[in-house]
Amino acid sequence: MYNPNSLKAEEFIDDAEILETLDYAQKNKDNAELIDSIIEKAEKRKGLSHREAAVLLDCTLADRNERIFELARQIKKDFYGNRIVMFAPLYLSNYCVNSCVYCPYHCQNKHIARKKLTQEEIRQEVIALQDMGHKRLALETGEDPVNNPIEYVLESIKTIYDIKHKNGAIRRVNVNIAATTVENYCKLKDAGIGTYILFQETYHKESYEKLHPAGPKHNYAYHTEAMDRAMEGGIDDVGLGVLFGLELYRYEFAGLLMHAEHLEAVHGVGPHTISVPRVKKADDIDPTAFDNGIDDDTFAKIIACIRIAVPYTGMIISTRESEACREKALSLGISQISGGSRTSVGGYAGYSPEERPHDTEQFDVSDQRSLDEVVNWLMKLGYIPSFCTACYREGRTGDRFMSLCKNGQIQNCCHPNALMTLKEYLMDYASPDTRDVGVKLIESEIGNVPNEKVRGIVVDNLAKIEQGSRDFRF
Ligand code: SF4
Ligand code: SF4
Fold first, then answer.
1. Closest ligand to 114 CA?
2. Can you tell me the distance from the alpha carbon of 63 to that of 47, in angstroms, rounded to the nearest whole number?
3. Quick one: pLDDT at residue 87?
4. Residue in 86, 392, 413 to alter for ligand 2 test, most ligand atoms within 8 A of Cβ
5. What is the pLDDT at residue 156?
6. How far is the CA of 14 from the CAs of 1, 18, 205, 291, in angstroms?
7. How far apart are the first and last CA of the chain?
8. Candidates 91, 99, 103, 148: which one to mutate for ligand 1, based on the most atoms within 8 Å of Cβ?
9. Fewest C-beta atoms under 10 Å: which of 89, 228, 305, 406?
10. What is the C-alpha separation between 90 and 124, in angstroms, rounded?
11. Full-prediction pTM beyond 0.85?
């Protein structure tokens, strides 16, 4: 029985409710009157229910679809302006006891090289990432209580935060590790993590169990209820995601939004981010083996509908996607992207931008450009690449963060912080061409800081950054 307030996975992600939602959406896919009323509700920028959003996703009326895309673009602009937050993944270990059939780290894969970074190797990786200009990382590790226990993850986080190399610093470490206990989530919270990210992979229980035939991840309920334990453990910001291609995308879309509704209902705060990965080629993984792959147009529609349904939730796209696909996704709702990513264990230190180790790669990277190239590209498209990490460092997390988002005040922080962190990047890491483009962009964007007093502080701080000071933030 569907109950968003329940703490039981099968009640807040109720299969019957999803099937009824999909049926309702199909029956109303060309119901102009209903679709118009949902679009009008969405225009109020307070979000949509999973049922309403499912109708928009299925809508077959060309003119209404154009309105949906236009509204997504407008909401993106209203909430996130032209800023794009940058991050990079850091793989610590690919030892894993699970058997996920879509991931080359599954424990039956006997030929893939297994690697776990030592603290010294982590140091080298982080220095390489700092030298690229990164300030925000997403830690990735397989599930293995012997090789990658929580103590290893905690020690690694401390190592990362402690490294101060030249002007570099990792200021926010987001963590993507397997579902764990409340006690371990408390430890991660105490270690100062930013967002705890855990992809559901699929919300379809039967498929989930087939795709995870053995190992602790086989337990659908334990995995699906992980965000509740994370929040119980004090982690305010959690990131959801599904792996599109495993199951029918319409099912996943409804499940994802029901999960968001559940977090809002129980904890008073929805997901901080939603990621939209698609199954990609990897070592012994062939994406065509999965029947439910989605084309680029469907992918764009999903992104637009998520943007409309949960306007306050950041959206992330990784280098799994190509430059062209990322460009389209940015305008429709994406607010964070990775750049210069390596998806192998120890893939940064000791390699030139052109070299790319494949031996421990989790998936093929489509967008293989360097961070400098991505930053340059974003600016030429009119975006401000932002290296901002201010919120969690200022205690703006969870419901405090969400209320600032909902009343629009967060914009007063995001825009100035984007300009100041971009300026740091230009001074410390950018190529000459990127610096030229960036300096002009900052000049033209200063006038867009609405508050005169704040604008004055930003101008002062930009001058101080030029003289060597760092880490200003609102
Ligand atoms: S997806 Fe995660 S849990 Fe599954 S095999 Fe890969 S690393 Fe292990
Ligand atoms: S001010 Fe907060 S919400 Fe805005 S970009 Fe920085 S960390 Fe993100």
1. 1
2. 21
3. 98
4. 413
5. 98
6. 7, 6, 10, 23
7. 45
8. 103
9. 406
10. 12
11. yes
